[in-house]
Structures are given as C-alpha cells and as structure tokens.
Amino acid sequence: MRWFFVIVQIGIFGLAVSRIVVAMQDYYYYYAMGVIVMTMYSVAIFLGYEIYDEADEGYVEYLLSLPITRRELVIGRSLAGGLRSFIFMSPIIAGFLIIIGIEDPLKILTALVALYGFAFGVSGLSITLAVGLKSGDRFDIIMGALDAFIVRLSSALYPQAFMPGPIAIMSQFNPLTYATDLFRWSLNFDVSYLANPGLALVVLLLFLVTFNFAGIIMYEHNLEGGNWR
Amino acid sequence: MLRGMAYVIAHDFSVFFKYRWFLAGLISMNLADLLIMGVVFTKMVSFNYFKFLAPGIATMGLFAAAFVIGREVNMETRRGYNQYLLSLPLRRSELVFGRMVAGGARGLLYAIPLLILAMVILRFPSAIEIGLILFAMYLLGMGISGLAISLAVALRSFERFTTARSLLYLLLVFCSTVFYPISVLQQVLNGPLILFARINPLSTVSDLLRGYMMGTPPVTLLSWLELLTFSTVFILGGAGLYALAIQRSV
Predict the structure, then answer these.
(1) Which of A20, A25, A31, A138 should we substitute to test contact with B (largest number of B Cβ atoms within 10 Å)?
(2) For the whole prediction, is pTM greater than 0.95?
(3) What are A174-213's pLDDT values in tens digits?
(4) Which among B20, B40, B186 is the top mutation candidate for probing chain A, defined by the most A β-carbons within 10 Å of its own β-carbon?
(5) Cα separations in angstroms, B112 against B10, B16, B58, B117, B177
(6) Residues on chain B touching A158 (C-beta within 8 angstroms)
(7) Partner B contacted by A19 (CB < 8 A)
C-alpha cells in the first residue's frame, strides 16, 4: 500500500503539480526526492507501533531479560528500524537513481548514507516517544499531528526559498528539511534551493545521536521492573 | 419512520464525537494543507493557489469525515453488533437509511468550518448559493457514506477494509480537482484515469464550490446530474448491501 502511495504521489500529484509550478526548474525531481525521504520517515516511525504490540503481548519483559545491555537493545532496534525502511524503499530509490541517471558511486553512497542516517534517527525518535508516552492512543495522536506538520513545515515538498518567514524559520528546526536537502545535494540538485550540506550533515548527526540516547534513557527509566502498563 | 431514524442519527452523532482525537488529527491535516502548503505553493505557481485550494480542502475534509461510518459498520459487522441493532424496536429501513443520513450529516458538520474558512478566503455567496453548496456537500457526504458502508460489509476483514479505504482515498483525492485544475490533469493522465478524474464526485463538488465562490469553473446542470447519479447509486447500493449484511448476521 505504501508503495502505491509513493507511486501515486510521484506519478500523479508530482507530475500534476510540477506542471503548475513556474518558480523553479525541475520541480518534479525536487518533489520526487522529497517523497522518497518522507516515505522513509513514515516507514521508520512504524517501529513505535510495534513496541505497543509487543507490550500488549508481554514481549517487553522478554526483551528486558535478554543478556544484552539496554544500550545495545535500543541502538540495535534503531539500526534495524533504519535498515528495514531502507530495504523497503530500495527498489524505488534504485529505480529513481536509474531514471535520473546518477552513476557516480560516491554520489550514490552519500545519498544512501543520508537516507539511512535519517531513518536511523527517526527510529530512535519513534522508540523514545513510544517508551516515553507508554500510551498507544497518545502516541497515535502525537504521530498524526507530527506527520501533518513535520512534512509541511520542512523542505520535503517545497524549497525554503519560497516559504514565508515563520514557516521558513520553523523548517530550519526540522530534521526532515536537512535529510531531504542532503539527499538532493548528493544527487546533484541545484544547490541554490538547498540547505548547506555541511550543516545538514551536522544536524542529522545530532538528530540521530540525541534521539537514540534519549531512547536508551527512556528504556532504562520507564520499562524496568514491569513499569509498562 | 422519521422518529426511528432520529434515534439512529442521534446514536451515530454521539459515536462520532468519541473520535475527537481522530477529528483533531484530521482537522490539523486539513488546516496544514491549506495554511502551510497552500500559502507556499501560491509563491511558486502562476495563480493564487491558496484561493484555489480552499474549496478543495473543504471537499476533502467532508470525504474523510463521511468515510468514518464505514469503519464503524465494519467493526459492528465483525463483532456481531448487528444482532443487537436488529433487536432494537426499529424497522430495517429506519436503521439503514438512518445510518446513511447520519454519515452524510456527520461529514457535512465536520466540513462546515472548512467551508466557512473557504468563504472567508474567497467570498460569501448569496443565501440561495449557500443552500445549494450545503445540499451538494450533503449529497456527496451521503454518497461517500454509502460507498464506505458498501465496502465495510463487502470486505469483512478489517485489514482488507483499511487497504481498500486507503486505495480509494488515494485515487479519489489525487485523481480529482481537489489540488489542481482539470486542465492540468488532462496533461498528465489519459485513458480511464482522466475519465475517472472527470466523473470523480470530489472533482464535481470541488468545482461546484469554486463555481459558487469564485465564479470559475462555471456551475453546470451536468455537474449536478453527475453528483445526483453518484449519490443515488451509492446510497441505494450501500443501503441494499447493509440491509443484506445485517439480515445475514442473524
């Protein structure tokens, strides 16, 4: 279903909107790259919902009883969450790279590292929120609201250059902005529409370290001793 | 007949407001589309996209809210709640049509604030035009409820229902004039897809709203006929399938 969503977004919405956009060249590719990163975000965030399923099935205590540290558990799950999103999207990413004709292995590697780094960070964010909130309903609501605003208040759909002041300011604090712009930069998109790649790399690193670290703390404080209700 | 239907409608309204968090999420999504995406795209396209999008968002909101009844009916069908419904001192027709009316009215109620916002952005039409707009939206709401109920009882499994709902949502919203004019869709779609986009009730209602509030595209008798046909087919189809489903659940 999510693949179908990507295909409709790129194949119908993207094509149609790119016909009415007059302010920039190649909006279609700009948009398609944004949709790929947005979908990585949606797939990676799903990890939080799985944590609630595990809690319902009493699987949390089993995980806590394993002979591994909490740090290994959280980072392992985040790495796996990122990898799953990456594998899920790989046919679409590969198809897109072929269509736009990128052959430079270094460029491809940078693009893939940007995507994976972002998905890894989002998985950490999802674990942090799921374990921190400990309520499936609240998590669902926060995820719905985050989804509505995190995408629209980022450069996933449109460049920061066209955003009015307050929207542009908010998009500067959004990791999705930096992940999409770093991905576009690695695929040779016009840099005048993108955030600084160095800054994007630093923000992405901070994002993934912060939320994985927060996830470890949350796991240690919120789940020990049958604390999950 | 009306008294029995009134009970069903009152019940469905009370259930609808239990979904307050879902509704809060939906309204944030609709407002974010209009107030963020609409504003930014206005700077990137050659016309006032914000004004163009406002009636489309009201239509999209109506569609999403009217579809919720399908989820309820699907859950009731799976959990055997239909037997309880059949035990109530109501005629079958009161129950079936009460639910259709409630589904459409809930969608309309949800969409009215978005419609008022669109009127504030564009212009307030005359009282007669407002009446026609509300009637068109109500017809769409009832048709969508009928469609949602048909799917809910035909695909009993929740997973199949949610998949079909998402598929339908993507096709109905993106292959419509909610986000872009039909002239643009004609450039990117062809064959059955462009035909689908033309007869899509979301296109019809979005354009009717634009016609009454912006003057373009012009409102035609054909648009009304298309909307009436869609609503009649899905209200009757949904009612028939729902009646059959609750009958079989005994």
Answers:
(1) A20
(2) no
(3) 999 999 999 999 888 888 899 998 999 999 999 988 888 8
(4) B40
(5) 19, 15, 8, 9, 20
(6) 37, 40-41, 44
(7) yes
Q: Where are the domains of chain B?
A: 2-248
- Residue A48: the pLDDT is 83
Q: Taking a C-beta distance cutoff of 8 angstroms, is the pair A150, A174 a contact?
A: yes
> Cβ contacts (< 8 Å) between A157 and chain B: which residues?
37, 40
pLDDT at A213: 82
- Residue A219: pLDDT over 80: no
Question: Residue B45's pLDDT is what?
Answer: 93
**For the segment B230-250, what is each residue's pLDDT rounded down to a tens digit?**
989 988 888 888 888 877 765
Q: How far is B183 from chain A (nearest CA, A)?
A: 10
Compute the count of residue pairs across chains A and B with CB atoms less than 8 Å apart: 89
The closest CB to that of A152, out of B37, B47, B185, belongs to: B37
- Cβ-proximal residues to B71 (8 Å cutoff; 6+ apart), any chain: B148, B152, B161, B165
Q: Which residue has the higher pLDDT, B126 or A139?
A: B126
B43:A16 CB<8 A: no
Contacts of B69 (CB under 8 A, 6+ apart): B12, B99, B102, B103, B106, B145, B148, B149
Average pLDDT over chain A, rounded to whole?
86
Average pLDDT score, chain B: 90
* DSSP per-residue string spanning B5-48: HHHHHHHHHHHHGGGHHHHHHHHHHHHHIIIIIIHHHHTTBSS-
Report the C-alpha gap between B94 and B83 in whole angstroms: 15
The answer to whether the CB of A185 falls within 8 A of the CB of A111 is: no
Q: A169 touching B, CB under 8 A?
A: no
Print burial letters for A164-191: b (CB count within 10 Å at least 16), e (below 16). Answer: eeebbebbbebbbbbbbbbbbbbbebee
ipTM of the complex: 0.85
pLDDT, tens only, A20-68: 999 998 899 999 999 999 999 888 888 888 888 887 777 877 888 888 8
CB contact under 8 Å between B28 and A20, yes or no, is no
Report whether pLDDT(B93) > 90: no
Residue A21, classed as helix, strand or coil, is strand
Could you tell me which residues come within 8 angstroms of residue B196 by beta carbon, excluding any fewer than 6 positions away?
A: B171, B175
Chain A interface mutation, best of B18, B41, B44, highest count of A Cβ atoms under 10 Å: B44
A82-101 mean pLDDT: 88
**Would you state the pLDDT for residue B250?**
57
> In a 10 Å sphere around its CB, with 0-12 CB exposed, 13-18 middle and 19+ buried, how is residue B22 labelled?
middle
